[in-house]
């Protein structure tokens, strides 16, 4: 293994638990001596398959101060890595890139009254990591987490969300979106449409406004693109280090 894994960049972790939320969604909990990271960042995890290290980026779901490390993933059809990750058992070795990466972090987000976090599928992960830290609650009057999934069973982390709700009453809203079945509690739509037709703002009693709102978007690149375009049409701009704006994004593929 020494020849296929660069020990300067990768640390050997151990699987603590593979928790199945559904038959396609899993939390992989790992112990590994990684470098400190900021909530919202990702690392790479990998397995040696046929003498090759096969690795992919995964967001940290745990907050920086929490152990074990947690990664939330979906098995994609014919996905080379995810189909191996689901075969892991407690105690198995797993490679974790020591150094974190990524800029979907609160220190990149300008001051604002309201923070909207918009996610599809597994991309709720980095937002949970951020929400498990003290910083967002000190910085924003209201925080909204939108989680869009196909089926209601894919709304994982209900306990974490319920805890955030009870710890931050009046400051936190969770908005579930279930696109492929009717439920009594979720919007049945896509995120860009909910913004375009004003339903999200009416539901929250909150206006998306370039002077008061920051938006973080993560997940399906087509959702990221369409939602960004909707927000730009509403007068918001992409947030860049040299040119601060209101819309910060991360694509998962
Ligand atoms: C910055 C970053 C962070 C990421 N964080 C996560 C994470 O926390 N959890 C996670 O599950 N994935 C995450 N991904 C995607 C992940 O790296 C892999 O692509 C994914 O797990 C599939 O790996 P694979 O080898 O099985 O298939 P791949 O060959 O890597 O992917 C095959 C196809 O599956 C689809 N796909 C990939 N990832 C997803 C996904 N998450 N949800 C829906 N469809 C997908 C895409 O169409 C992709 O082209 C992230 C990607 C990036 C760039
Ligand atoms: N049983 C299974 O085998 C199974 C189950 C779930 C997932 N998967 C696989 O896992 C992968 C990921 O699925 P996923 O459901 O986590 O992710 P996803 O396809 O990105 O869907 C998550 C949410 O994003 C929405 N969305 C998709 N495209 C969008 C766009 N252009 N604009 C706005 N919203 C958009 C979806 O709405 P729509 O519903 O309207 O597309 C859904 O509400 C896929 O490869 C899938 O095949 C397999």
Helix and strand pattern: EEEEEHEEHHEHEHHEHE
Number of helices: 7
Any idea what the CATH superfamily of the largest domain is called?
Nucleotide-binding domain of ferredoxin-NADP reductase (FNR) module
Q: Give the N-to-C terminal Cα separation.
A: 28 Å
Description of the structure:
This protein is an alpha/beta fold and 253 residues long. It folds into two domains: 10-97, Elongation Factor Tu (Ef-tu), domain 3 (Beta Barrel), CATH 2.40.30.10; 106-251, 3-Layer(aba) Sandwich (Rossmann fold), CATH 3.40.50. The chain is 20% helix and 31% strand. The chain contains seven helices and eleven strands. The strands form two sheets. It has a six-stranded antiparallel beta sheet. A five-stranded parallel beta sheet has the order 9-8-7-10-11, with helices on both faces. Helix 7 (221-233) links the parallel strand 10 (213-219) and strand 11. The longest helix has 13 residues, at 221-233.
List strands and helices in order, with pairings:
Elements: E1 10-20, E2 25-31, E3 42-49, E4 52-59, E5 69-74, H1 82-85, E6 93-97, E7 114-120, H2 125-131, H3 135-139, E8 142-149, H4 158-167, E9 172-178, H5 191-196, H6 199-204, E10 213-219, H7 221-233, E11 247-251
Parallel strand pairs: 7-8, 7-10, 8-9, 10-11
Antiparallel strand pairs: 1-2, 1-6, 2-5, 3-4, 3-6
The structure holds flavin-adenine dinucleotide and NADP nicotinamide-adenine-dinucleotide phosphate.
Flavin-adenine dinucleotide binds at residues 42, 56-59, 71-74, 76, 79-82, 102, 121-122, 125, 250, 252-253.
């Amino acid at each position: 293994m020494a020849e296929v894994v660069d020990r300067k960049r990768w640390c050997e972790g151990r699987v603590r638990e593979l928790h199945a939320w559904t038959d396609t969604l899993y939390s992989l909990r790992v112990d590994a001596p990684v470098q400190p990271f900021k909530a919202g960042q990702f690392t790479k995890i990998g397995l040696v398959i046929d003498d090759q290290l096969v690795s992919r980026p995964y967001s940290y779901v745990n907050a920086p101060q929490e152990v074990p490390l947690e990664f939330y993933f979906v098995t994609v059809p014919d996905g080379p890595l995810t189909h191996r990750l689901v075969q892991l058992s407690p105690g198995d070795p797993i490679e974790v890139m020591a150094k974190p990466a990524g800029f979907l972090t609160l220190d990149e987000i300008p001051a604002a009254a309201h923070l909207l976090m918009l996610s599809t599928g597994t991309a709720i992960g980095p937002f949970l990591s951020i929400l498990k830290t003290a910083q967002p609650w000190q910085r924003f009057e209201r925080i909204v987490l939108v989680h869009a999934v196909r089926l209601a069973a894919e709304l994982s982390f209900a306990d974490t969300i319920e805890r955030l709700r009870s710890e931050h009453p009046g400051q936190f809203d969770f908005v579930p979106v279930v696109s492929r079945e009717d439920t009594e509690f979720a919007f049945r739509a896509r995120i860009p449409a909910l913004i375009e037709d004003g339903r999200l703002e009416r539901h929250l009693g909150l206006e998306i406004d370039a002077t008061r709102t920051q938006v973080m978007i993560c997940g399906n690149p087509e959702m990221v693109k369409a939602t960004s375009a909707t927000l730009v049409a509403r007068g918001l701009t992409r947030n860049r280090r040299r040119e601060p704006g209101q819309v910060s994004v991360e694509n998962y593929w």
